[in-house]
Amino acid sequence: MLDLDVFLQQLITGLSNGMIIALIAIGYTMVYGIIELINFAHGDVFMLGAFLALTLVGALGIEAWGPSGQVAGVAVLLVGSALFCGSLNWSLDRCAYRSLRKSSKLSLLVSAIGCSFICMNLGLFWGGVPMEVFAGGNAAAAPKDFPALIPQVNLLGDGFLRITPADLLVWAVTIPLMIGLTIMVKRTRLGRAMRAVAQDPVAASLMGIPVDRVIGATFFIGGALGGFASVVYSLYNNTIGFQMGTRAGMDAFTAAVLGGIGSLPGAVLGGLTIGCVRAMSDQYLELRWTNTIVFCILVLILIFRPNGLLGATRREKV
Amino acid sequence: MSESLLEVSNLHASYGSIEVLRGVSLHVVEGEVVSVIGSNGAGKSTTLMSISQVLVPRRGEVRFAGESLLGLRPDQVIQRGLVQVPEGRRVFARMTVLENLSMGAYLRTNPADVTRDLKRVYDLFPLLGERGSQSAGTLSGGEQQMLAIGRALMSRPRLLMMDEPSMGIAPILVSRIFAAIRQLNSDGLTVLLVEQNARAALGLSKRGYVLETGSVGFEGPSADLLNDPRIRSAYLGD
């Protein structure tokens, strides 16, 4: 039996998680759009963003800042993780990808997989740092509790449905970022340069566009969006771990492919779809089937519609 | 000989292990139109790409306005006023005509100058003004060529290198594009014109070079090249 309020509740959860997935998916799709690389390290950069956020919570003692101070604390985490993940992603491009621009796509892909391993192991070390927020570093690989800095009350009172401030936080962070990014890509000088490089890097360089710098900026922006996503994810789900990037990465990559890789609206549509599919699968099938279903979607899309939902009609890259 | 604006000497370049240029030397004096003709695969486009530093030359020297360009990035070459209209036009198909033109002005900092140059481009090719908000991919080949030239002009070049502006274009538009090149030159623009359409190119230029499998086979005043029997039979279809 399909209970309407259960269904709606899962829809809310699915859409909130979907927005987070979409924000990560944009990082995949932007980088793919501009240099046709699946940046496998992106999910792990996202994971390290969550570790930085938890470290900041412990180091700054944000839990003790009181209710209004914690809002400021969340802002600090958002900015800190965004800058950190943006810089990290930029560094990956600078150190591991840039020198391979003229090599085969396969070399670039292998390099990205290597970066993913390195980042994941950094997360494993980081989790073993003897800080109280990491449970004293007792078990580096163990999942860490992320403190609920956002109150877990139901804004709808005692209604059947539950919308928490954490849901609102997800939407308040992700929607403006997506709108801002769209405007940036459409209207600004950097955005136009990114689109030009995506379409024809040689022609772009002949216009005087510093191609490598534009690609670097794309990595920074994609990484920064992953950083925002990592903080929102941690506050929404309250558990982080060094392997979280793998699952989030797979969800987001599937979302990007489902929407049409290279397409910004496609990444958002794909993210929301995957978020809802996960929520519904958790509710109506079983938790253990959810990852399988996401993976099946990825395989089916790659076989039957490799351009994705929006890819065929609209191939706006970046 | 007066001081050259562009001086290319003994240029060698390869794609992978395939050597394409084997010692190309040429020069362009300020105010000239110089043409480079040659058959497919002779290395005409490779020469331009090596001058623009998109392809890093193996050996040789490229000097522009007295300064060596070797070791610069392509965008730094453009910044110095040496601009290329690439073969096959390469307009940004999924951007509008106006956005394409604004990409040409990417390095410009004074908006008033850019607006003035945009008006000049629209005067030269009025069609671009009418199609400003249209996606460049929907233009015809000839219109895209006009856009590619206009886009390059937006960077305010001192020397404009054009790679096969007549390729794949309706004859009526070819003559319009060549008329535009002539007008640009009479307004003071120096032009290096690479063409397979040897007759049209030599008709426009003062001097010419004939490229043969990676090096210069003949060079001289265009009139002499047009009358040379070897060139007539090989490149002019006589």
Would you write up a description of this structure?
The complex is a heterodimer of chains A (318) and B (238). By secondary structure, chain A is mainly α. Chain A has one domain (4-129, 154-304): ABC transporter involved in vitamin B12 uptake, BtuC (Orthogonal Bundle), CATH 1.10.3470. Chain A is 72% helix and 1% strand. Chain A has 11 helices and 2 strands. Chain A has a two-stranded antiparallel sheet with strand order 1-2. In chain A, α2 packs across α8 (211-237) and α5 (165-187) crosses α6 (189-199). In chain B, 38% of the residues lie in helices and 27% in strands. A 6-stranded mixed β-sheet of chain B has the order 6-7-8-3-9-10, with helices on both faces. The mean pLDDT of chain B is 94. Chain B is globular and about 45 Å long. Chain B has a single domain (4-90, 141-235), classed as P-loop containing nucleotide triphosphate hydrolases (Rossmann fold, 3-Layer(aba) Sandwich). By secondary structure, chain B is of the alpha/beta class. Chain A binds chain B through residues 189, 192-193, 195-196, 199-200, 202-212, 315-317, and chain B through 52, 54, 73-75, 78-79, 83-84, 86, 90-95, 99, 102-104, 106-107, 151-152, 155.
